[in-house]
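Bumping with the actual sequence this time:
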Amino acid sequence: MSTTIVLSATVRSGSGKGVARKLRAAGRIPAVMYGGDLAVSLSVPEREFTRAYTHDGANHALIALNITDEAGRTETKKVVLRSLQQDEVTGRIVHADLYETRKGHKVSVTVGVHLVGDEPIGVIEEEGILQHLLHEVEIDCLPEAIPDSIEVDASALHVGESIHVADLKLPEGVHVHTSADTTVVAVLAPRVEEEPEVVETVLEGAEGAEGTEGAEGTEGAEGEASES
């Protein structure tokens, strides 16, 4: 089950590019919380939010968001991260969309797929190549049941074998939206390097031609010497 992350937020009244620029200059990220009767405009501390997103797994975790309104009152809402906007050059988070959860209502989130266990038999004994192809899946479940990750044990795979989404062992109450036939991990046959071709025939022919030319030149010189 996913660990709940605690973050703070402040209700903001303004909107638009100018307001967003001022917020970022002050070290805050503009955000919007959906899921209630009305969308609520917020701002969150950039450092705190970025740390949670990059290190604590806020991209799929349940978030306890302590929201302070303009009157100074604080209320806690359980939310999940819906989407992020990041600067294409710097990677800096510039906007966040959050979704308020409701008790008894499922949410859709993306969670990571992590490999566990020993290296596959096909890698250790058959010189195969391990390929981890799918690193996250989209799931839906109740907010309190969001898993930290989906674990996959590929240690029994031989060369030519693979594990698909349909083979994943999911926690109770978790449903995967990712296509069932999508390959998660596979063990491929080892690469065979082709030996370079040696062009012996051409070289032998060239040597023979040089020998013939040399012989003809010698015979011609000897004949000229006899005639003189």
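The tokens above came from a reply further down the thread. The CA atoms of residues 221 and 227 lie 10 Å apart.
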